C-alpha cells in the first residue's frame, strides 16, 4: 500500500506567521515599476524580522509610490495623507502610540519637491520611523515631470533637459540629524532586504532612498534613474550583512575587512568594506563620500550613516510607557479643581 503524500506545512517565521500573512492587495502599478519590487522586499523584511503586522502603521502621501502601501501588509494600519504631508501624520501616529512601528512610504516628488519642508523637520527630530523614498526622479502619477531629485542634465522622454541641480535626500537627512541613512536600488534584492531589516531594528529615524525606475516615464536613454543607468553606475560603499537579535549571533569575519554596528535591539549590522575603510558612524565621512560620488557621476549605495546613541523624539519628550492613545480619560483630562486653580491664578 502506498503512503498518501502529505503537503509540507508552510514555512513560518519566529512568531509563527507565513509570508502570506505579510502580503497586501494586488498591485495596480505598471508592470516592471521599481515600486513593486520595493513592496516585495518590505514583505520579505517584515516576515524575516517577525514583525507583527497589526502593530505596523503604514503612512504615505500622494503618488504612485504613496499608493504602494496598499500592496503589502494587509493587516497593518494605513493612512494615505495629503501630497507631501505624510511626516505630520507619521509624527502624530508615532507619538500617539509608541507601540506601533511607523513605516512611511514616499516618492521623490512627495519628499523633495512639495514635501521638502515637512521632510526637513521630520529628519531633525529622530522620530522612531522607517522612511522610504521610492525615487524615480519624476512625478510618475502625473505623467513624468522632473522632480527635485532629478539629476542635472537628465533627459525626459519628451526631450526636455533638467538644468537644475538635484537634491540629495541622503546628504540632507545626515546633515539634519537622521540616525540611519542609506541608499539602495529597487533591483538589488539582497542589498535592499538587508538594509530594510537593519532599519526595522533601528530605534530612531531610518531614511532609505531607493532608486526605483519609472518604466513608463523615466526608463529611456538619457535618464539617470533608469534600470540600465542605475545598474551601470551603482557602486556599493559596503557589502552588508544583518544578523537579527533573535538568531544566534555567530559572526565569522576577518577583523581587517569588516565593521559591525550594534543596533538598539542587540542585533548587528555587519558592513564588509570594499577597497575603502568605510566607517558608517562617522558623519563627515558619510557626507564626503556622497559629495565625491556626485562629482564622479556615481550612484553610491549602502548604509552611509548610523548613530545608535542619539535620543529618539519619544525619549526627548519623556513620554509615558503606556501609549497616549490608550490612556484613560481620567489620566489625560485635568480634574475640575486643576482648571479652577488655573482660572483663579489668571484673575
Ligand atoms: C497638493 C497637491 N499638489 C499636486 C498634486 C498632484 N500630484 C499628485 S502625485 C504628484 C507627484 C508624485 O510624484 P512622486 O512623489 O515622485 O511619486 P511617483 O508617482 O513618482 O511615485 C503630484 C504633483 C496633488 N495631488 N496634491
Ligand atoms: S507611472 Fe511610473 S511610477 Fe507610476 S506605476 Fe507606472 S512605472 Fe511606476
Ligand atoms: Mg517619483
Descriptive account of the structure:
By secondary structure, this protein is an alpha/beta fold. The chain has a single domain (19-325), classed as Rossmann fold (3-Layer(aba) Sandwich), CATH 3.40.50. Helix content is 31%, strand content 20%. The protein has twelve helices and 13 strands. The protein has an eight-stranded mixed sheet, sandwiched between helices. Strands 10-12-11 form a three-stranded antiparallel sheet. Strand 11 and strand 12 form a beta hairpin. Helix 3 packs parallel to helix 5 and helix 6 runs antiparallel to helix 9. The longest helix has 16 residues, at 34-49. It is globular. The mean pLDDT is 91. The structure holds thiamine diphosphate, iron/sulfur cluster (SF4) and magnesium ion (MG). Residues 63, 107-109, 136, 138-140, 147 line the site of magnesium ion.
Set down the secondary structure blueprint.
Elements lengths: L33 H16 L6 E5 L3 H4 L9 E4 L5 H11 L4 E7 H6 L2 H8 L5 E7 L2 E2 L5 E2 L22 H8 L3 E6 L3 H13 L3 E7 L15 H7 E3 L1 E6 L14 E5 L5 E6 L9 H14 L2 E8 L6 H4 L12 H4 L3 H11 L1
Parallel strand pairs: 1-2, 1-3, 3-4, 4-8, 7-8, 9-13
Antiparallel strand pairs: 5-6, 7-13, 10-12, 11-12
The chain binds thiamine diphosphate, iron/sulfur cluster and magnesium ion (MG).
Features:
347 residues, alpha/beta, Rossmann fold, eight-stranded mixed sheet, three-stranded antiparallel sheet, 12 helices, 13 strands, 31% helix, 20% strand, globular, binds thiamine diphosphate, binds iron/sulfur cluster, binds magnesium ion
Amino acid at each position: 500500500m502506498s503512503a498518501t503524500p502529505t503537503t509540507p506545512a508552510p514555512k513560518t517565521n519566529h512568531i509563527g506567521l507565513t509570508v502570506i500573512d505579510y502580503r497586501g492587495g494586488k498591485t495596480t502599478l505598471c508592470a516592471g515599476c521599481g515600486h513593486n519590487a520595493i513592496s516585495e522586499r518590505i514583505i520579505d523584511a517584515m516576515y524575516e524580522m517577525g514583525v507583527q503586522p497589526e502593530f505596523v502603521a503604514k503612512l504615505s502621501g500622494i503618488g504612485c509610490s504613496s499608493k504602494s502601501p496598499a500592496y503589502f501588509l494587509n493587516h497593518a494600519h494605513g493612512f494615505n495623507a495629503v501630497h507631501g504631508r505624510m511626516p505630520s501624520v507619521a509624527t502624530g501616529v508615532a507619538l500617539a502610540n509608541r507601540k506601533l512601528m511607523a513605516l512611511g512610504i514616499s516618492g521623490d516628488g512627495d519628499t523633495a519637491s512639495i514635501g521638502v519642508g515637512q521632510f526637513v523637520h521630520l529628519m531633525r527630530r529622530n522620530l522612531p520611523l522607517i522612511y522610504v523614498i521610492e525615487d524615480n526622479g519624476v512625478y510618475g502619477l502625473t505623467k513624468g515631470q522632473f522632480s527635485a531629485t532629478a539629476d542635472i542634465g537628465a533627459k525626459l522622454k519628451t526631450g526636455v533637459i533638467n538644468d537644475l541641480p538635484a537634491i540629495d535626500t541622503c546628504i540632507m537627512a545626515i546633515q539634519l540629524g537622521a540616525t540611519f541613512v542609506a541608499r539602495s536600488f529597487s533591483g538589488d534584492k539582497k542589498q535592499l532586504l538587508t538594509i530594510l531589516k537593519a532599519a526595522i531594528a533601528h530605534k530612531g529615524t531610518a531614511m532609505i532612498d531607493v532608486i526605483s525606475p519609472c518604466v513608463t516615464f523615466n526608463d529611456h536613454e538619457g535618464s539617470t534613474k533608469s534600470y540600465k543607468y542605475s545598474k551601470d553606475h551603482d557602486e556599493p560603499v559596503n557589502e552588508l550583512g544583518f544578523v537579527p537579535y533573535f538568531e544566534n549571533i555567530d559572526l565569522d569575519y576577518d577583523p581587517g575587512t569588516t565593521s559591525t554596528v550594534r543596533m538598539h535591539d542587540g542585533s548587528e549590522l555587519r558592513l564588509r568594506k570594499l577597497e575603502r575603510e568605510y566607517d558608517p558612524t562617522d558623519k563627515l565621512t558619510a557626507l564626503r563620500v556622497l559629495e565625491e560620488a556626485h562629482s564622479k557621476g556615481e550612484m553610491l549605495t549602502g548604509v552611509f550613516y548610523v548613530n545608535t546613541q542619539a535620543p529618539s523624539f519619544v525619549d526627548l519628550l519623556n513620554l509615558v510607557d503606556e501609549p497616549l492613545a490608550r490612556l484613560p480619560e481620567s489620566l489625560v483630562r485635568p480634574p475640575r479643581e486643576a482648571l479652577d486653580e488655573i482660572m483663579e491664578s489668571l484673575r
